Amino acid sequence: MSFTIDIADQVALVTGGTRGIGLAIAEQLAIAGAKVVVASRRIETVREAEKTLKDKGLNVTGQICNVGDTDDRKRLVDEVIKLHGQLDILVNNAAANPVFGNVEDTEPWAFAKIMSINVEAPFELAKLALPYLKTSSHGNVLNISSIGGLTPEPKLGIYSMSKAALNSLTKVLAKEWGKHGVRVNAVCPGLIQTDFSEALWSNDKLVQHMTQATPLGRIGQPSEIGQLSLAIVSGAAGYCTGHLFTADGGYTI
Ligand SMILES: NC(=O)c1ccc[n+]([C@@H]2O[C@H](COP(=O)([O-])OP(=O)(O)OC[C@H]3O[C@@H](n4cnc5c(N)ncnc54)[C@H](OP(=O)(O)O)[C@@H]3O)[C@@H](O)[C@H]2O)c1
What pTM was computed for the model? Predict the structure, then answer.
């Protein structure tokens, strides 16, 4: 007996869906039949992502949104509803890490930005999405977290703390929204080759250390997070909620 993942007729919103992991998630959801809205701050990346995915025959629309902005968030969810009349899957993927260094050197503006984009925005977007997720028979929130949220990463202290908060938010929402049939899960990627992590994977010494410490002996690719994300929001994981799915080649074992 074969099993095919099918999320046809569902509508998904992927924040930060125009590059890297978000783009890979958007692509997988659209391949599986969803109508996908990708959102990010810059018109050029939004248009480019929209074209890349539409050229592959996928049903994808781009929207401009800075997830750190209250009005933008509301406008984004309103646009999704105006376009498609429903919202079944929210993927909170956009994140920020403007600093690299020790906690004592982290300035208040950096702390505020990290918490605003990585914690407050997923929380607020989930609340805006809830009325639609509740009426869907497939309501899902997927938060893209990090292994830093499980064990703090060196020089990424406040970012790690923000992802730990996102992990906790995932569990809190799963507990509160299970009664609505809404599942809430998180993915905790290890090092994945994207623009965001370029400072890490372009450092030969660090890559050598990472690959030696990783049972699978390599860093990850965005498509691997895309495929895992699709499985989590689909019926394949229909009895999973409040869970943190680690995808790190075994690094944190
Ligand atoms: N790459 C890794 O090794 C790794 C590891 C663990 C976890 N993660 C997590 O995976 C997620 C995606 O990371 P990535 O590596 O794919 O990053 P990326 O390649 O830098 O892509 C980030 C995406 O988010 C958008 N974005 C950034 N700030 C935004 C904002 N304020 N509002 C809306 N969109 C915004 C960007 O587009 P614009 O510039 O157009 O806004 C872009 O589409 C993040 O949550 C990150 O913490 C990544």
Answer: 0.98
